[in-house]
Design a protein that fits this description.
The chain has about 300 residues and is an all-alpha fold. It is about 75% helix and about 0% strand. It is elongated. It starts with a helix and ends in a 22-residue tail after the last helix.
Amino acid sequence: MRLLIDSFWRAAVYCLRPRVMALSVLPLVLIGLLAWGAGYLWWEPAVASVQQSLQSSTWLELLWGWLRQFGVSDAAGALAPLLVVVAATPVIVLLAVLAVAVLMTPALVRLVADRRFPALERKRGGSFMASLAWSLGSTLAALLALLISVPLWLVPPLVLVLPPLIWGWLTYRVMTFDALAEHANKEERITVVARHRLQLLGMGVLCGYLGAAPGIVWASGVVFAAAFIVLVPVAIWIYTLVFAFSSLWFTHYALAALEQLRRERGESAGTTPGSAVAAAATTSMPAADGLSPRASPPPSTSFAS
C-alpha cells in the first residue's frame, strides 16, 4: 500500500511538469493539423454528398416539410456540415490519440527513469514490435470480453462494474508492459506482475473510471451542438492528462517494484546478477596476508614450520 500511495502522488506531481503539460497539448495540435488537412481535401465534397443524401431521403421528406412551415427553408444544408463534423471527429481523435500513445509513453518512462532511477540497469526485455503486438492482443481480448458481456449490462449494477473492470484489465496489461519493457527482462517482468497483480489491476480500474470523465464532456458537446467545438477539445485534453497520469503512475510503481526485486536478489543498480555474485564472492575472500582481496595470491609458502 505504501508503494501504491507513493507512486500515486509522484505521478500527480509529475503531471504538473512543463514537459508533461507540453505533451498533453500535443493531441490538440495533431487534431488541428489533421482537421485542416481533411477539410482542405474533403470538406466540400463530403458536405455536398451528405446534403444530397438528406435531401433525397424519402423518410426525411416529412421532417423537411414540417420545418419549412416554420420558415426553415434549407434544413438539410444547415445540418450537413454538423453531421460531417460529428462523423469525422472520432476518426481524427482516434488517430491523434494513437499517435500520442506511441510518442508519450516512451517519453514519460524516460522522464521517470532519468530523474528517479538513473542507476537502474536497462535490460531491454521488450522491443517496440513486442509492445505493439502485446497491446494489440490485449485490446482484441478486451473487445471480445466487452462484446460477450454486453447482455449482462442490462443488469443495472453490472453496467457500472464490468466495462471499467475490463478496461482496467487492459490498462494494467498495456501500461505495465510498456513501463517495464526498457528496464526489465521477461523473467523480471513476469515476477513483478505476479507479485503486484492485484495492486496493478486496481490501478487500472481506477484509471478506467478516470477515463470516463472526458466522455461526459464529449457527450455534452454532442448534446449542446453550439458548444461542440469548445467542449470536444477540452475532453481530448482531459483524456490526454488522464493518459499521462496513468502512464506515470504505472511507471513509478513498476520501476520501484523492479528496483525492490533486484535489491532482494542482491543485484546492484547497474550490475547483472552474475557480476553481483562474483563481486560478492571476491569481497568475501579472506585477506589474512594483508593484501587486497582482488590481488593475485602470494607465492606458495609452507606454514607447517
